[in-house]
Amino acid sequence: MDTRDEHIKAARLKHQRQDPLHSTATDFSGSSNDTTPIGSSDLHRKLLREMSSGVVVYRAVDNGDDFVIVDLNRAAEMIEQVTREQVAGRRVTHVFPGVAAFGLLGVFKSVWESGTPQHHPVSEYSDHRIRGWRENRVFRLTSGEIVAVYDDRTRQVEIEQAEAHHELLANELNHRLLNARHVVELIVRESMQDDPVRASIINQRIRAGLAGLEIHGRAATKPIAVRALLANELAPFGLDRIALYGVKRPLLPARLRPVVALAAHELATNAAKYGAFSNGDGRVTLKWRIDQETIKLSWNEDGGPPVTSPQTSGYGSEMLHRLIHAAGGTIKRAFRTEGLGAEILLPVNGSGLSAAFATAPSSRRSEHRKSGRAGFERLPGPEAGAAAER
Predict the structure, then answer these.
(1) For residues 379 and 173, which has the higher predicted lDDT (pLDDT)?
(2) 87, 69 contact by CB (below 8 A)
């Protein structure tokens, strides 16, 4: 070999020693007492040291039946609750005795033998010292060492498991509510055989109230399309008499699902008693709009009996007012000749159902009764026709 070839070979070897993926003693920690650092680049060391993913380098021993920990970065130290000084130079089966059962030791050997990278999916690791869910990607370096780049998925899995448990409990609650509803409806029908119309009205209200609770049970984390929610709630009143108009996106925030459902039910119940649903000709148009700050619902009846502003407020009106107010919203009503109009505004970031059922102070309820308006603001519009309690 001539002098020129020797210079070329020496330059290549120097480049390999400075290349992180060609270093035979790879260092991710940047420790000052390392004799064979990852290379001369401080940037390389800093990037690997500060990676959010864990990075561990291993060297095969016993023909790939075990591996010695060569180095690891800070993220790996935090994930595994160890220090580099504690584990460097030790066998992985000693530091992590559950690695074979975890399935990762077999992946290490396969990658070391074949050189083909492998993904070890999210799995649970446990031993006497530590437990958690890990996702690994394993590669072989040109030095013959292997490197595992991995992430701690424990928090993510715990959240998914908690959601699944919540869903299971909610489904069980919904099943029991359904059984209870059937029993109560049977009791109502048997007790009011002489007044089947009133029994039917009572049972409809029972169904709607329990449906609201069922929705609440399933909605802790999942938004819903407004149309789907309203169609489900208003179906007992006849969707052929209700026109629904509104945007598909964004979805209704989960915490406001029961508020909107119960508000729609109360308006529909009043319409069945006094308004558009109380005869064969009336119809309802329900529109909604959602932006970054506000949810707007517009309820307009047409074709029902003419109405005027009531002189007294019923339980349903007071409940609806408290429901909307507790959620941080407002409701305005207009008693028009052609039928009731109502406009509900709810803040997107408002509170949910829990505050809505807080008991209003007796002074407020008394004031509402005296005013005959149940705390509602009125939309501008003519008022004529027969009075109706809403």
Answers:
(1) 173
(2) yes
DSSP 373: S
DSSP string, 10-21: HHHHHHHHHSGG
- Is the pLDDT at 43 greater than 70? The verdict is no
Per-residue tokens: 52: 């959010």
Give every strand in the sheet of 294-302, ordered side by side: 242-246, 283-290, 294-302, 339-347, 330-336, 377-378
Structure letter (DSSP) for residue 28: S
122 vs 365 pLDDT, higher one: 122
Residue 80, SS3? Answer: helix
Q: What is the dihedral of CA 201, 204, 210, 213, to 10 degrees?
A: -100
Cα distance between the two ends of the chain: 103
Token pair of 9, please? 């070979």
Cβ contact 161:122 at 8 Å: no
State the Cα angle at 345 between 341 and 350, rounded to 5°.
150
In 96-249, which residue ranges form alpha helices assigned H by DSSP? Answer: 99-102, 104-114, 154-191, 196-218, 226-234
pLDDT of residue 326: 83
Inter-residue contact 298 to 355 (CB < 8 Å): no
The helix, strand and coil proportions of the chain, stated in percent and rounded to the nearest 5, come to 50, 20, 30
Q: Are 102 and 125 contacting, i.e. CB atoms less than 8 angstroms apart?
A: yes
Give the mean model confidence (pLDDT) for residues 38-54.
68
The 8-class DSSP code of residue 129 comes to S
pLDDT tens digits, residue range 312-355?
Answer: 777 677 878 888 888 889 999 998 888 999 999 999 875 544 44
pTM: 0.48
* Mean pLDDT taken over the chain: 77
Task: Name the residue with tokens 């993220």.
Answer: 75
Residues 255 and 222: their CA atoms lie apart, in Å, by 9
Share of the chain above pLDDT 90, in %: 37
What are the DSSP calls for 229-295, one per residue?
HHHHHHGGG-GGGEEEEE-S-SPBPGGGHHHHHHHHHHHHHHHHHHSGGGSSS-EEEEEEEE-SSEE
